[in-house]
Amino acid sequence: MKIIPAKNSITSQKVVETSSTSVSDGMEEYDRLKFKLLVLTLVSGAIIGSAVWFWYGWKIALSYAVGSLVGTIYFRMLTKSVDRLGGESNRLGLSRLGLFVLLIAIAAKSEYLEILPAFLGFMTYKVAVLVIVAQDLSKA
User: Is residue 15 part of a domain?
Assistant: First the structure.
C-alpha cells in the first residue's frame, strides 16, 4: 500500500500570497528609494549651487546648475532604464550618453558656461547615492 500525500490548497495559496506580497513590498521599497534619491539629488543640487553662487559668482553657479539639472534628467532616465530590465528592451542607453556629451559640448562652446562646474553639477546625483549608502552603513 502506497501513501500519497494530499496537496493542501490552502497551504499552496498562502505560499503564493506570501511571495506576491513580498514582491509588491519590494517594488514599493524600490519606488520609495527612487523618489528619495531624486529628492536628495534636487536638494543637494540646490544647496551646493547656492554655495557655489556665494563663493564663485553667478557664471560658475549657472554652469553648476545646468549640469545638476542635466544630471537629474540623466538619473531619471537611468531609473527608467533599470525599471525596464528583464523586459524585451535591450537598448544600450546611448541617449543617456548623448545627454552627457551634449552637456559638455554646450559648456565648451558657450561663453556663459564652464566645463568643470557643469561636469561637477552633472555628478550631483552621486551625492544622493553616497548619502543613501552612508545611511545604510550606519544602520548595519
Answer: no
Amino acid at 26: G
CB burial readout 14-45, b (16+ within 10 A) else e: eeeeeeeeeeeeeeeeeeeebeebbebbbebb
Question: According to the model, what pLDDT value does residue 15 have?
Answer: 46
* 8 Å CB contact between 45 and 37: no
pLDDT band, residue 11 (cuts 50/70/90): very low
- pTM of the model as a whole: 0.77
Place of cell 517594488: 27
Q: What is the DSSP letter of 103?
A: H
pLDDT tens, position by position, 68-104: 999 999 999 999 888 887 666 666 678 888 999 999 9
Residue 46 lies in a domain: yes
Whose CA is closest to 79, among 121, 119, 133, 41?
Answer: 41
The length of the chain in residues reads: 140
What whole-number distance in Å separates Cα of residue 20 and Cα of residue 89? 24
CB neighbours of 21 closer than 8 A, spacing ≥ 6?
Answer: none
Look up the domain containing 48 and give its range: 21-139
